[in-house]
Automatic annotation (TrEMBL):
InterPro entries referenced in this protein's UniProt entry, alphabetically: Flagellar_assembly_factor_FliW, Flagellar_assmbl_FliW_dom_sf
UniProt cross-references to SUPFAM superfamilies, sorted A to Z: BH3618-like
Highest taxon listed in the record's lineage: Bacteria
UniProt keywords, alphabetically: Bacterial flagellum biogenesis, Cell projection, Chaperone, Cilium, Cytoplasm, Flagellum, Translation regulation
Protein name, entry field: Flagellar assembly factor FliW
Assembly with partners or alone: Interacts with translational regulator CsrA and flagellin(s).
Subcellular localization(s) per the UniProt record: Cytoplasm
Annotated family: Belongs to the FliW family.
Species name: Paenibacillus odorifer
Gene3D superfamilies registered for this protein in UniProt: BH3618-like (2.30.290.10)
Purpose: Acts as an anti-CsrA protein, binds CsrA and prevents it from repressing translation of its target genes, one of which is flagellin. Binds to flagellin and participates in the assembly of the flagellum.
Length: 148
């Protein structure tokens, strides 16, 4: 399948890269199909709308940035995503001009079911996370400190 993107122009994606968000993403309810485009050998990927070339999100692997990140997926969410076994969790990253101000949204992870090709952004209620955690946590972990 060929999709159009702002960043790469026309891009060929495999159907195994396409995820269906039955209810869209918050604020983008009409956009239900996205391609997950890996950035090889990095903890990052892009979530690109297959219909709207101007709609994409930079995602990151939260477990790389916050080793202790965890949450329990509610049963109804797991059922909605037809999850029986493995999932992939990614979080939206907001890049800032000054890299040290870039953040990752740990409060609302995107949960992907690679088997059923279903996905949903889940808002975690009663969780200690918020929408703007620093990406510099990685440096703190590398230094052997818990940066918060």
């Amino acid at each position: 399948m060929i999709i159009e993107t702002l960043s790469w122009g026309k891009l060929e994606v495999d159907e195994m890269q396409i995820y269906h968000f039955p209810k869209g993403l918050p604020g983008f309810d009409e956009e239900t199909d996205f391609a997950l485009i890996a950035m090889e050998e990095t903890p990052f990927c892009y979530l690109q709308s297959v219909r709207n070339r101007g709609l994409s999100f930079l995602l990151g692997d939260p477990f790389v940035f916050y080793l202790s990140y965890e949450f329990e997926l509610p049963d109804d969410e797991a059922e909605e995503l037809s999850i029986n076994d493995g999932t992939v969790v990614r979080c939206i990253i907001t890049l800032k001009e000054q890299t040290e101000h870039s953040t990752i949204n740990l409060l609302a992870p995107i949960v992907l079911n690679p088997t059923a090709r279903l996905a949903k952004q889940i808002v975690l209620h009663k969780a200690p996370y918020h929408t703007k955690h620093s990406l510099l946590q990685v440096q703190s972990v590398i230094d052997g400190k818990d940066g918060g």
